[in-house]
Amino acid sequence: xxxxxxxxxxxxxxxxxxxxxxxxxxxxxxxxxxxxxxxxxxxxxxxxxxxxxxxxxxxxxxxxxxxxxxxxxxxxxxxxxxxxxxxxxxxxxxxxxxxxxxxxxxxxxxxxxxxxxxxxxxxxxxxxxxxxxxxxxxxxxxxxxxxxxxxxxxxxxxxxxxxxxxxxxxxxxxxxxxxxxxxxxxxxxxxxxxxxxxxxxxxxxxxxxxxxxxxxxxxxxxxxxxxxxxxxxxxxxxxxxxxxxxxxxxxxxxxxxxxxxxxxxxxxxxxxxxxxxxxx
Amino acid sequence: xxxxxxxxxxxxxxxxxxxxxxxxxxxxxxxxxxxxxxxxxxxxxxxxxxxxxxxxxxxxxxxxxxxxxxxxxxxxxxxxxxxxxxxxxxxxxxxxxxxxxxxxxxxxxxxxxxxxxxxxxxxxxxxxxxxxxxxxxxxxxxxxxxxxxxxxxxxxxxxxxxxxxxxxxxxxxxxxxxxxxxxxxxxxxxxxxxxxxxxxxxxxxxxxxxxxxxxxxxxxxxxxxxxxxxxxxxxxxxxxxxxxxxxxxxxxxxxxxxxxxxxxxxxxxxxxxxxxxxxx
Amino acid sequence: xxxxxxxxxxxxxxxxxxxxxxxxxxxxxxxxxxxxxxxxxxxxxxxxxxxxxxxxxxxxxxxxxxxxxxxxxxxxxxxxxxxxxxxxxxxxxxxxxxxxxxxxxxxxxxxxxxxxxxxxxxxxxxxxxxxxxxxxxxxxxxxxxxxxxxxxxxxxxxxxxxxxxxxxxxxxxxxxxxxxxxxxxxxxxxxxxxxxxxxxxxxxxxxxxxxxxxxxxxxxxxxxxxxxxxxxxxxxxxxxxxxxxxxxxxxxxxxxxxxxxxxxxxxxxxxxxxxxxxxx
Amino acid sequence: xxxxxxxxxxxxxxxxxxxxxxxxxxxxxxxxxxxxxxxxxxxxxxxxxxxxxxxxxxxxxxxxxxxxxxxxxxxxxxxxxxxxxxxxxxxxxxxxxxxxxxxxxxxxxxxxxxxxxxxxxxxxxxxxxxxxxxxxxxxxxxxxxxxxxxxxxxxxxxxxxxxxxxxxxxxxxxxxxxxxxxxxxxxxxxxxxxxxxxxxxxxxxxxxxxxxxxxxxxxxxxxxxxxxxxxxxxxxxxxxxxxxxxxxxxxxxxxxxxxxxxxxxxxxxxxxxxxxxxxx
Amino acid sequence: xxxxxxxxxxxxxxxxxxxxxxxxxxxxxxxxxxxxxxxxxxxxxxxxxxxxxxxxxxxxxxxxxxxxxxxxxxxxxxxxxxxxxxxxxxxxxxxxxxxxxxxxxxxxxxxxxxxxxxxxxxxxxxxxxxxxxxxxxxxxxxxxxxxxxxxxxxxxxxxxxxxxxxxxxxxxxxxxxxxxxxxxxxxxxxxxxxxxxxxxxxxxxxxxxxxxxxxxxxxxxxxxxxxxxxxxxxxxxxxxxxxxxxxxxxxxxxxxxxxxxxxxxxxxxxxxxxxxxxxx
Amino acid sequence: xxxxxxxxxxxxxxxxxxxxxxxxxxxxxxxxxxxxxxxxxxxxxxxxxxxxxxxxxxxxxxxxxxxxxxxxxxxxxxxxxxxxxxxxxxxxxxxxxxxxxxxxxxxxxxxxxxxxxxxxxxxxxxxxxxxxxxxxxxxxxxxxxxxxxxxxxxxxxxxxxxxxxxxxxxxxxxxxxxxxxxxxxxxxxxxxxxxxxxxxxxxxxxxxxxxxxxxxxxxxxxxxxxxxxxxxxxxxxxxxxxxxxxxxxxxxxxxxxxxxxxxxxxxxxxxxxxxxxxxx
Lengths: 280, 280, 280, 280, 280, 280
Prior knowledge:
Six copies of one chain form a homohexamer. The first copy, chain A, has two domains: 2-112 and 266-275, Aldehyde Oxidoreductase, domain 3 (Alpha-Beta Complex); 116-263, TIM Barrel. The two termini of chain A are 39 Å apart. In chain A, the strands form three sheets. In chain A, strands 6-11-10-9-8-7 form a six-stranded parallel beta sheet. By secondary structure, chain A is α/β, with parallel strands linked by helices. Chain A has eleven helices and twelve strands. In chain A, β8 (190-194), α8 and β9 (210-214) form a beta-alpha-beta unit. The model of chain A has no long low-confidence stretch (mean pLDDT 95). The interface between A and B is large, with 70 and 70 residues.
C-alpha cells in the first residue's frame, strides 16, 4: 500500500500546495508549534490513519500522532480520532489533504460495514470489484478489508476472469481456459463468467476454478449452485444492493461481488481543529 | 487538465494492468480488431470523454472514438455515449479504467447539475471546495464546471483564505490581511472567514476582498450581506445541502460553496459492450 | 511487459548515451540514412525482438524493422535475425543497447530450451523462480516462456508461498493457511513449502493448494507425491540441474522450479553490421 | 553508483512486491523483530554489500547490518557474509531482492578475478566493455573493479571510440579524429578501431590517443604493438577468453578488453537464513 | 519552493555527478571529515541558503551548516556567508552545485535591491515578470522577494492577463473579461493590457481589476492614471530600466513590472574554501 | 541534449501552465489556428531553435516551424528568426516558455561570440566551466559551442581535475595522479591544478595530461608554458575577462577557461507576434 499512497500524496501536494501555501507562508513563522485534533462528526468505521501520518510526516519530520484507534475500528460521532503535535505551518498546510484521504477511506469502510452487517452469520464472502477511482485501487481495497469484506483480484495481473469476449475470440470456453492455463502461474485460479445454465455447464466442463453467475435471478443462482455442487467456487454478481444482499447470501454461493462498496461510497464527515501551542 | 489526467492514467495502468493482462494476453492476438459502445445506464450529465480518449490512445495509437456528445451535455438512459474502433486487446484492457474515469466524473457533473437546477434564475454562484479525492483535484473541478457550477480556488497557491488560526497567529485580521498582501501577487484576492457579525466588521475594516460567512443562520447571513453592502464579495459556507440551497441563494450572498459536489458524489452507471470485428 | 521494458530503456539511454554520443554527434549528420543487419553468431532461441524495436523507435520514429522470425523461434548461427532501416545516427547510437537486450533475453530463452528439451514428453511443467536480475523480472520471465517453460508467480503479490519462517510466526501451518486465505483474493492459490514427510502431511491437512517439496531426495519426492495423491499440486525445488532433470520429472511431481533458467544464463553471441545508405 | 542503484531498487520493489507481499502481510505483525544471516554457498569475491544495505533500509529505517567483509574481498564457502537485525517483515520482504543484487554482482566480481589471476604479474590492464545488462552499467562496472580489473569508458559520453562506420561517414580517419576533437572536451581521449596494419598506420597518423586492434591474430598484434611503439596506447579486443588471455597479455598491448566479464557471468550461490527474535 | 528546488537538485546531480565524481571517489575515503567556508567575493544580497543546505544534505545526512545571515540580508565582500561541517567527499562533490544555486539567486536578489533602492520612499510596487529561466520560476521569484521587490503572478494559472490576441479572439474587451470571469475563481483578479487611451477606457468599462499600460510614454501614463482614478490598479510595463525607474514611479501607477530583475541578472562572485579536518 | 531539454520543458510547463492557462482556456476555442513570428530585437547569435520546436510540439503535434537560420548563425536586429503555424491556443500558451529558452541560450551564444572574436586568429581554445545554472548544463554548454567556443568537461564523471584538496588528501600530486589513473578509464585525461611554478613542476613529474595555471600573472603563465614545453596541455584560468583575453591567448597556453560565458550572460531581446489565421 505504501507505494500507491506515496504516489497519491505526491499528486495531492502538487495540486493543493503547488508552488506554495501563500496564506500560511505569509503569516506563520516556520518554527511555531501547534496541536490538532481530528474529530468524527458522524459514526464511522476508521480507515486511513496511516495516510494522515504520512501526509504530516512530509511536512514535518518530527510530527507526533497519537490515537486510541486502529483502522477497522468503529468511532462514534464526537470522538477524537487522533491528536497531532508538530509545526503549526505543517498542520495548516496538511489539514485538507489529510482529511480528504481519511474521509474517503473511512467512507468506504463505513459503507462496507453496513453491507457486512447485513449478512452477518452467513458463510458467504462479500468481495469488492475493480470499480475503483483510478490511482486509488490499493487504498480503496484496503478500506474494503477494514470494513470487514474481502478483496477480489487487485487487477488484470493477479487473477483470471474469462468473459464473453474472451470466449468468443478463443473459440469456446474449453479452449480459453486451456490457453490461459498455459500462460499463467499455477498459483493463479481461473474464473469464468456465465450468464445462463448452459454456460455454467460449459465452464464446469472446461475446468474453471471459479464460476461467476452474472445477472441471474435468485432462482437461477440456486439451481446453478446446486448443479456445480462444490466442483468450483461460485461468485454471484450484478445488481447487488443492500436489499437483495440477504437473499443472495442464501443462494449458497461462495462469493458476492459488489461494485458499490467503492464507487457508491461518499466521504464521511470528519473535521480538524488546530491550535497554536502558545494558546491556553 | 492534461498533466493531472496523464498522472492518473499512469497510476491506473500500473495498478490495473501492472505486469500484464494475463487473460487477454493469453487469448487475443495483438492485431485482431474490434468495436465498443459505451452506454448510459441512467440519465446523466457527461464529463470525462477526454479521459476515455487518452486511456485508449495509450493502448492503441490508431484508435478512433466517435461521439455525438460533448462534456457538459445531458445523456439519457439507454443512449450510446460513444463508439470506439481499435484493437480488440486494447478495448478489453482499457474498458475498466476508461469507465472508472467516466463514471466518476459524470457522477460529479450529474450531482452538480441537480444543485445548479435548484437555484436556476438566482444570481448567486455555486462553487466547489478543496474537498476532492487526492490526485483528482483538477479533474473533479472540471466536472463541477461541466455540471454548471463554478470553481473556488484550485489550491493553496492561487487564492488566499484567512481563517481563525491565521488571524490568531498574525495578531488580528488587519495585520493578517496586510502581511498577505505584501507577499502575494496583486492579481490574487484575499478572502477572510467570519463566524459572527463582529468578525464580519473586522474583515471589512481590514480590506478583505471577499468575506466568507461560516456556519451562520440564514438570518445572520441576511444581516451580514446588508452590512457589507457590496464593499466585498460574500460567500456562504457550511451545511450546504439541496434543501437549504434556495434559502441560501436568497440571502443575497454572491457565492455558495459546497463540498458535497465532489465528496458526496457517487459514480453513475455506465457500461461498455465490446465486439470482435469479425462478428456480424 | 511494455512498462518494464520502457523503464529499462530509459535507464539504458541514461547510462549509455547520457548527455550525448559525442562520437556520432561529431561525425554523422542527423539526416543521413543507413541500414543494419542483426546476425546470430551461434545457434539460439530468439527473444527480445520487441526490445530492439522500441530502442530504435526512441531514436528514430520512422525506423523500419523487418524480420523473418518471431520470439520463441530457433535461429541458426550465421542467420540474419532482422534488418533495420533508419537514420544512420540512430543505428550507431542504439546498436549496443539493442544488442544488450537481445543477447541477454535470447540467452535465457536458449538455456531454457535446453532444459525443456531434456524433459520432452514428460507431463511435468518446468517453471522459473524469482531469482531474476532486479528490474528485469517481467522480461526474463517472458524469455523463459519463449524458451518453452512456464512461469511461477511474478512476485510476492500474485501468489502465496508459505515458508518455514511464516509458519513459525503464525503458530503452525493450519493457522498460517487460514490467515492468508482471509486476506487474499479467492483467485490466488496457496502453496506451502515442506522439507519432510511430516510437513507434507501438515500442509495437506491445512488445505494447501500446492505443496513444494524442498531439497528432498528423489525417493522422498516419489513417496510424497504418492501420499499427496492429487489432493494438491506438487512442486519440486532445490538443486535442479540438467543432469537430475529427467529423474525429477519422473517423480510424478506437477512442477519443477529452476532458478538457473534466469540467474545461470549467459548472453548469446549476436552482432550488428551497419552500413551507410550511400554505400553500394 | 547511488543513483543507478536507487533506480534499480525502485524497479525491483515494484516488480517483486508491487501492491503488497500478501503472504507476509497476512502473517507477520509489523513490529515483530528478527535476525538474518547471509551465507556464501560457494567461494566467491564479494560485491554488492551496499545494495543489500539499501534494500533493507527502504523496508526498515532502523535495520542494522554487520559484516566482517568489504566488497572486493574473497569469501569462502560456508562463511557468513553479513548479519542483519531488523523487523522480521522487512527481512522476509527484502530477502529475494537483496540476494538477487548480491549474487549477480558477486558473480561478476568472481568471474573477473579468475581472469585477473590468469594474467597476474603482466603489466597489461584488463578492461570491461559496454556489454552490460541495460540499467546495470554502473553496478556491473563497479563489480568488475571489485574483481580487480579496470573500466573502459562508461558510455558514449565519456570517451570516443571511432569505428568503421564513423570513418566511412567522415571520409577518412584523419578527418574523423579532427572533427571529434573540435567537439569534445580536451580531457577526453580519442580511440580508433583498426582491423589491419594499414588502418593502424592511418590511426597513428591521424593522432589517435589509443588504437584498438580488433580481431587480429597474436602475430599481427605483436607487429602492430611494435609499429606503434608507444606513440599511442594499444587495446586488443575480440575473442578474448581465459585460454588466450596470457598470450594476449604478452603481445605488449596496454589493454585487453573483454565483454565476457559482464555478459558471461552467472550469479554465485548465496542464501539467507531468517529467524524470529523470540526463537532461541 | 521545496518541490521546485528538489527537481533542480535532481537535475543538477544527474548532470554534474552522473555516474560518479571519479576524482573524489579515487582519492577521498568516504568517512574522512572536513570543513568549508563560503565567502562573498563582492557585496551582495543573500538568497539561496536553503539550496546550499539541501544540496549538502543529499550528500551527507549529518552535515551541519552554520550561518550568521538569512536570505534577504546584505553581505559585504570578504565576509564568510556560512560554514559547513561534514564529510570531505560531500563537500568536494557538492561545492560547484551549491555555489551555482547561491551565486545565481543572490545575483537576482542583488540586482533587484539596486532597483528597489532607486525608488525608495515611493509607494509604487516593483514587480517581476514571467521572464525566468525554465525550471527556475519559483526560485527566481523568491530571490526577487529577497531583493525587496514583489511578485507578479506565478504563471498562467494564478492570475489573468488579457492581451491583444485574447481580445481580438473574444470579440472585444467586454466579452473577454466576462468569459474569463465565468471560468475562473472569484479570488483571481483580471488584468487587461492597454496600449493607448482608447484601450484604457475600454478596459475600465469592461470592469478590469487591473490595467497594464504597455509601452506608453511617461505623459500618456500620467494621463491614464488620472483617467482611471483609482477604479482599477494600474501597472506600467515595457522598457523599464534603472534610469527611467524614478520617473515611472512618479506617474502614480501602483505597479512597475520589470523583466530585467530575472533575465538581466548575472551571478555574483562567491567562492568556497574546503579543508580536511586533520589540517591545523 | 534531448533528455536535458525534455526535463526542463517538463518543469517549465508545470511552473508556467500548471493546472491550466485560465485566460486562454476561457477565450480561445481549441481548434482555432494562428501564426506567429519570432523577432530579434537586437543583434544576436542564435541558439535554441530546437527548444522552440519542442515546446510547441508538446502543445500541438502538428505545428510547423519555418526558419531561414540555424543555431550558431548571426541574426540582425529586426529580422524574423522563425515563423510558426499551429493552433492559436498552443501559440499563446507556449510563447513565454519558448522565448525564455531562446533568449537565454542565444544570450550565452552571443556573449561567447564576443569573446571568441576577440581572440580570432590565435590558436588557443576558449572553453567554458561548470559554472552553469543547475539543470541547464547540457544546454548552456551547447550554446557555448554555438557561440564558437569549446567545452571543458561536462561534469565530474567525464574528466579528472585534481585540486588542492585532492592533493592534500592523497598525500602529494604523484600519489593522487596514480590513484585516479587506476580508477578511471584509459580514455579520460587527468588535469592537475597548479598555483605556482613548484606545483607546475610537481604536476609535470606526476604525469598530468593537462596542467591548469590558476590565477597566475601573465608573466608566470608565460614562464610555466615554456617550462612545460608541450609535455602537457596548458589551461589558464581565473579572472578571465574581455580585456585580458588577448594577453592570455598570447601566453602560449592551449586553453583559456572562462566561467563568465555562462554565468555572466544575460538574455537577449527577442519577441513574438501572434495573429489569428482569420486576420488579414
